[in-house]
Structures are given as structure tokens and as C-alpha cells.
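Two proteins were folded this term; both appear here.
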Amino acid sequence: MANIVAIIGGGVIGGGWAARFLLMGWDVQVFDPDPQAMRKIGEVLDNARRSLPGLSDVMLPDEGQLTYCETISEAVQGASWIQESIPERLDIKRKTFQKIQETCAPDAVIGSSTSGFKTSELQGCATRPDQIMVTPPVQPGLFGGRWIQIGPQPIKNTPGASIEKGPKKNPRTQPLGIGPPFGRFPGRKNLNPPLSAPKPRSPLESRGPGPPEAPPFGV
């Protein structure tokens, strides 16, 4: 029986996750309302197919099947791992998790690629809070990342063995536990300082009200 992963959000990070799972033999089901999602993921896959074999000293498994879905409900059908990689808006993420949990298997792992929210924040309003984990890639541009962080779970009944279903089962993606709660996103800062260093601001640079709000994500 094929392993199935649902990718919710097909941007740079979501596309990297899709490539990583697909080239490791998983069937991948993607949902993203962006009309350009298929093109963007296709470009990531083209790069991954050329590059990923050179990063391993063993042959890759047969590639899985990629499916683009019209709804979240369709994407999560049969998935044992669900990876959310949507805009960093807590209200959108919570609504997305609620939609996912309406249809997904109760024992599926729901991982979030968030770089700004704690596990407890994402679990708010969830039907099954213990199902949601923080699992951002350390190097999101590297086809899902060689390492993923696994955030601490504040809910006592979180099934500890659930991580065995996903990336830990894959010898080319290693989970990176981060122990007690840190402020936000420790792994990338500790392991990849050049990627997380703040960009110096010019004295002439405008300090306006900030970026516009992220667009709705179809939920």
C-alpha cells in the first residue's frame, strides 16, 4: 500500500515538501488555490529531479504519483501525513486545520511549516489538538530540507510514536527535536545562521506600516 502525503499550500516551502516526498516514493496530493501552483511546483520538481540524486549515495526509490486537488478535503483523503505550508496568518492556519480535521484520518500526523507560531497557538480551536505538530524544514529551499524541526507538544496525550509515520521513516530526512519550548524558531537560527541573519536597514529606508495582509487561502 502506497504512503500518501497531503501538501496544503504549494509555494516555495510546500513545493519543497512535495518534491521531497514524491522523490522518496510517496504519493503526493496537493491543494493550493493559486492558479500558478502547478507551474511553481513543477519548477521545484524539475530542479529536485536533477539535484536530489547527487545528494545521496544510494539509488532513489521509484517516484510516487503527484495529484493536484480541488479541495482540502480531497487532498487529505487517505493521507497519513499532512503538511501545511500556507501564509503566516494564525486565523487562516486555524481555519485550515479545522477544515483538514473534518475529513482526515484521526491518526494522521498534521505538520506545520510555520516559522512564527508555537504548537499551542496552532492547536487552539482544533477538533483534535494533539494531532497538530510544528515541523518546519531547517532548509526550506532544499526540497523539503535535510532536517526538520519537531516542536514540543503541550498536549499530554500526543501520540509519541506518530512521528514514525512521516519523515523519520525516510532515511534521507531526519527529525530534529528541540526540547523545551523556545521562543519561536530555534533550529534554523542555530544550524543555519546565514539564512536567519536580519537584513541591515538603510537609514533612508521607509519604515511604513508594514506589508499588506496575506490573501485568503480558500478557507
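Next, the second protein.
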Amino acid sequence: MRFHLAGDKIAKVCNTLIKYVAYAVIVYFVTRSVDVVARAWAGKTTLANVNVNVTGSVNASTAVGKEPGSGQGDPLVPFLPCLPDLWIAAGAIVLAAGTISYGKRQARLRKDTVEEMHKYQLEYERSLDPNRTSSNLTKRGDTRPGDE
């Protein structure tokens, strides 16, 4: 029994550690990406036009010059130093998508288990107290539709 409690404590510490390390890694990569873009655009003239229509469509356009007042420049030049960071951003997006899908799968599995155990829970509660009233949660443990 003591080993089980120690294992639970270690698991809780590891889960907390993983969560906060993930937050730190996300903050690091976001700040690094912003820094690279800021350095690439430093000293350059940047114009951004963002139009939002009533229908909800968004149009954005940018123009980047080589130096302030120098006229036209190659719009791809400021982005060349940050191309390696595109792989980092792509990796972060893949990691985020993976964690979201993992979380959704775990929530679905938990609801499946709740649904499977629902009839046993009802029998157990009735055996303890036959006058017990129900909270009217759904079989999957969700709030009843009228209470949302």
C-alpha cells in the first residue's frame, strides 16, 4: 500500500513537471520566433493593411522596404533568416495538434467508462438509499440538456 501511495505522489510530481516544462518550452519558442522576426524587420519600413468586412472575411497585405525611405525592396528578404524557425513552428503545431487529439481521446474514453459503469452506480446508490433522488446527469456524465 505504501508503494502505491509513493507511486501516486511521484506520478503527480512528474505530471506537474511535464506540464510546466511544456509551458516553458512554448514560451521559449514563441519569444524566439518574435525575436527573429523583430531582428529581420529592424530598421525597415513595414506597412500592414488589415481589412475586416461585415461578413467576417479578413484581408491582410504587407509591404517591406530595405531601409526607411529607400523605396521598393524584396518582400522575401526579411523572412530568409527565420526559415529554420519555420521547422520549429511546424513542430510546435504538430505537437499541439497531437496533445489536443490525445486530450479529446482521453475525455471520450472517460465518458465511455462512465457510461459503462452507470448502471452499476445506480444499483449501488439504490441499495444504500432507496429514497435517493437523481441528479439526472446523462449516462455519459454530462449535464442534463435543460441545465446548460
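Helices lie at 2-41, 83-128. The longest strand covers residues 46-52. These notes refer to the second protein only.
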